[in-house]
User: What shape does this take?
Amino acid sequence: MSHIRTEVRGSAGLVTLDRPKALNALSLDMIRDLTVALLAWRDDPRVERVALRGMGREGPFGAFCAGGDIRFFHQAVLAGDPRLEDFFTEEYTLNHLIHAYPKPYVVFMDGIVMGGGMGISAHGGDASLRIATERTKMAMPETNIGLFPDVGGGWFLSRCPGRIGEYLALTGQLIGGHDAVTARLADIVVASSEVPALWDDLGDDEAFARLRERVAQAPADGGASALAARRADIDRFFGLPTVGAIVAALEADPSPFATETAALLRKRSPLMLHVTLEHVRRARHMKLADDLRMERDMVRHCFQLRPGAAGETFEGIRALAIDKDHAPRWDPARIEDVTPGMVEAFFASPWPVHAHPLRALV
Assistant: This one.
């Protein structure tokens, strides 16, 4: 059964992620079906723009995409399933396709937008429209499962204003639509009640021109944004050079923001906090193709550096989604016990340049 529904209406190619019971978490088949549709429409003169939405439990909208199918990751590790490698190679290739897409790419980020959902929403080119609502719940929560913000997360988070990217990457903090605009991860916030009509009008050129004009005139500051209100503190703490320095400064500060943020970081994988900070700061100076190649190296190490159940990612998924005890046994257990060598190992490519699975990305 396909969990991707496509149609051409007027001059628009429309995609619906249709796996509502799993909050539209991406399977390998969904990644492949979405890629096939985008490639076909890229070269189809009838299609002038592409739009993407998610199916909610009660009908269209209300949920966008909760990320990659982490239950599949867990099963694939136990079974030695080679499709785990295919998943990341093809997902990152799709992220790059969206980034380089020559036609307007419109995303309705209504409801949950996390992890892999960010990978298919944050990367549209200059002609993209990223529409959030009051129901948007956005996050890159990978450090909570012993992973790092992949799907090009290093690239788009490092381009958030100030140190918002480091803050979101390390904490996995959930943000709303106005925060997403502040972070430059969305272009406009509209009422969820408006979304069905906007979708229905996408095939009409004049209606789409009006939507583009509305987005162009939307305030760039995100309106009522909690991120904007916390910006000075975020920059002060998350601009520090190391995870150890960030946590020490937070724990020395008596403010509620510092106390809550330090406690949150203490729950994340210590190893992957260090890896993630290094990742975001390297990606700040890379183009997307290079960042995706680096992430492909890193995600291979997440599953192979300590094979099978010994890995941080396997343990994080076990604790969050399989056993649901929310008590991961991180190794190392403390932020202070992570060594530079442990971090550096994630950035050594397991492939020579000519054989890298993403060598064709430019």
About this structure: The chain has one domain: 1-362.
